[in-house]
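Moderator note: this is an archived Q&A kept for reference. The question asked for a predicted structure of one protein chain; the sequence and the answer are reproduced below.
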Amino acid sequence: MSLADSPAELVMDADMLEAEAQQFQKEFASVRQAVGRVIVGQDRTVEASLTAIFCGGNVLLEGVPGLGKTELVKALSRVLDLDFRRIQFTPDLMPADIIGTSVMNSDEHGKYRFEFRKGPIFTQLLLADEINRASPKTQSALLETMQEHSVTTSGTIHQLKEPFFVLATQNPIEQEGTYPLPEAQLDRFMFKVVVPFLNREELNEVVSRTILKTAIEIPKIIDGDRIMTLRKTLDKVVVTDALRDYAVRLVLATHPGTDFAPPRVRQFVKWGASPRAAQALIRAARVRALAEGRAHVAFEDVRHFAVEVLGHRMLLNYDGQAENLDLSELVDECVRGLTER
């Protein structure tokens, strides 16, 4: 939009953006409702997963086994009509088991040459199940893919089909046989969502469905091409300078050496969130604004996923670890300590 645009053109652009926002809201709600027919409870988990998919992020789900994390990914793949693959991470899993390997084959003339055989990472919706049961060496095989959506092997770059999305699950770190994810790996996840245990009503519903073996039809709502089109709408959502600065200040509040950090962050945090966190806050805020039918971001949109964006990017110092502090509480303190200006 240039300064030479006439008032009529500006009004037309605003009307078009408003119409696109309404359409986004309708399709987002339809997808969320379809997934909700399969997943009992876990509304926050479903919302975070869909938000990440629509803006091109990745999600790390943490929770004990049996909470429906795998079923969530399967439901997303059907509703969004995306290719789906699952990798079960184990201690003996190697990087080649994920990205693929080069094998020597002979052609019709008897000449030998190396041929790359693609691994399960060449998909659109990848479930990295129990990712923290594999060694850090194997976990690092996902770094390039999660950030660049590509795989480099033998000097050749292989681009993955868009949209590409990694949803990883991990068991609580206190369980045996787990490796902590390195900070560089965690930073590649847009959200980390702690999946809560089901309440009485939800657990009864799960057991009833299991006993009755009720088949639930999941319709295809949109496809990959439509997701890529909707992502273009995100770039048009208005983010004012004040809102952008609010996201930046929120990230700076997680760093103990800044003026924005609350007292407990200065006392118990060793290092705060990275610049990727500020980008993630804005991207998630744009999706939430559109999901609410608005073409502009509000302060509440930026705050909405603060815990999921910032918590896993903060590193406690020795005192914080000794106190076994909940990082989500520290993030809430960062949010409360900032004014909307």
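Archived answer notes: The chain has two domains: 8-88+122-226, 237-336.
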